[in-house]
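User: I'll paste a sequence; please echo it back and then give the predicted structure.

Assistant: Echoing your sequence first, then the prediction.
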Amino acid sequence: MGQENQTHVLEFLLLGLSEKPEQQVPLFGLFLGMYIVTVVGNLIIMLSIGSDSHLHTPMYFFLSNLSFVDLGLVSTIVPKMLLNILTHSKIISFAGCLTQMYFFLVFILLDNFLLTVMAYDRFVAICHPLHYVTIMNPRICGLLVLISWTVSLLNSILHTLLMTWLSFCTERELPHFFCDITQVIKLSCSDTLINYIFRYSAAVLLIVVPLTGILFSYGQICSSLMRIPSARGKYKAFSTCGSHLSVVSLFYGTGLGVYLSYSATHSTPKTSVASVMYSVITPMLNPFIYSMRNKDIKDAMRTVISKMPPSH
């Protein structure tokens, strides 16, 4: 293969959600609005938890980390999409594509791990309340987050390094609004067997196993709730899990649906739109979901907002 076909001289074209000119302005406004709401909402959650000593507990520690990760996730893909729409350009360099892919994999896997850790936290709180303080001590909580970051970074590095070994020929159109690893691999004209083996192996170990842990935790939680005699006690115990369960359902329901469809068919506009759900919509909704029925978060958020300087 000639030197001109090597990856370091290539640029990709991100086709986005729509190629119709009349839809670009509405898409820009829509995603700009969602991005601003996501950034503001997650920053307020982080500031509220950090500034209120009553919220310095494992549950809120993990929630503040989740907000930071969601902020990183949307900042990895949405600004580039907005810039492309604004400049009427679809180009992203190969280096830029790999960088975006790397950080997307880091943050999406961190989302996965943090949701698993939060499920374990609720499992300990409901099923082993007398040992909660001992089990979920600050050292263990910090260690769980550190392990999540370490595994996510190593996984993304390996994926990215494998991508640098691929060669690309003439096809360079990505039918997506960001550099999705599955779509980039499909464009390669070299042998991608190792990439697919590593991708699916990593998916089983790093997504299916944590999801199984979440399901096991909630199975144990439901079993414990059944043994609580009063309906009010059951509701009070489960109310601490409701927000997390909603986020888990939204994140895994849309994410797994998209990637299972990738495995079965080629990318379609509907698949790209579905990707918006777990990569943009879920990070935007998380602050609302977690604060909607949580009085402590609401009070802390009111305090933070009241201290903000008034706009003129």
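Confidence is low (pLDDT under 50) at residues 1-8. The beta strands are 11-14, 91-93, 173-174.
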